[in-house]
């Protein structure tokens, strides 16, 4: 399956809730195939969009979309930051925290400070706000 076909399937996927096992299994299949494609990184934006479109869905701990995005390190981060600025979700805030965990020095401090903006974001749902609060407390030791 080509990356373009996988991107199209991601863009058309509608997940009812965290119990929509058929579609969640489909995501697992698509991400497995994507990691085998030499141009798989081209699907990063659409995977981030999938997380943003379905803020209520638990994709796992952290789940195949996140593992696959992290597989394409260096290709997904800008899409993640754009999504967080539009509409933070529990999963995208979680991913942001995972990036903070591997930073050091001033970059880490800047990212932790920016994490606070997701607590007050007008489009963040309750789960995203709570995640941002918890991660901020964890990162600052407060």
In words, what does this structure look like?
The chain has 142 residues and is an all-alpha fold. Helix content is 68%, strand content 0%. It is built from 8 helices and no strands. It has helices at residues 3-12, 21-36, 44-53, 64-71, 77-86, 90-101, 105-119, 126-140. Helix 1 (3-12) runs antiparallel to helix 2, helix 6 (90-101) packs antiparallel against helix 7 (105-119) and helix 6 runs parallel beside helix 8 (126-140). The longest helix is centred in the first third of the chain and has 16 residues, at 21-36.
Salient structural properties:
142 residues, mainly alpha, 8 helices, 0% strand
Radius of gyration: 15 Å
Contiguous runs where pLDDT drops below 50 for at least 5 residues = none
User: Which secondary-structure class do the elements indicate?
Assistant: mainly alpha
The end-to-end span amounts to 47 Å
Q: Averaging pLDDT over every residue, what do you get? A: 95
Strand portion? under 5%
Total number of helices = 8
From the spread of the alpha carbons, the general shape counts as globular
Write the layout of secondary structure elements.
Elements: H1 3-12, H2 21-36, H3 44-53, H4 64-71, H5 77-86, H6 90-101, H7 105-119, H8 126-140
Task: Kindly summarize this structure in a few lines.
This protein is mainly α and 142 residues long.
């Amino acid at each position: 399956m080509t990356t373009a076909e996988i991107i199209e399937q991601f863009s058309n996927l509608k997940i009812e809730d965290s119990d929509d096992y058929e579609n969640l299994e489909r995501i697992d299949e698509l991400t497995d195939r994507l990691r085998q494609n030499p141009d798989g990184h081209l699907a990063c934006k659409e995977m981030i969009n999938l997380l943003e479109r379905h803020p209520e869905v638990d994709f796992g701990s952290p789940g195949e979309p996140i593992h696959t995005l992290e597989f394409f390190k260096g290709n997904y981060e800008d899409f993640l930051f754009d999504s967080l600025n539009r509409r933070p979700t529990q999963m995208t805030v979680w991913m942001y925290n995972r990036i903070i965990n591997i930073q050091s020095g001033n970059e880490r401090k800047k990212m932790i400070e920016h994490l606070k903006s997701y607590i007050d974001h007008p489009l963040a749902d309750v789960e995203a706000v709570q995640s941002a609060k918890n991660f901020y407390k964890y990162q600052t030791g407060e």
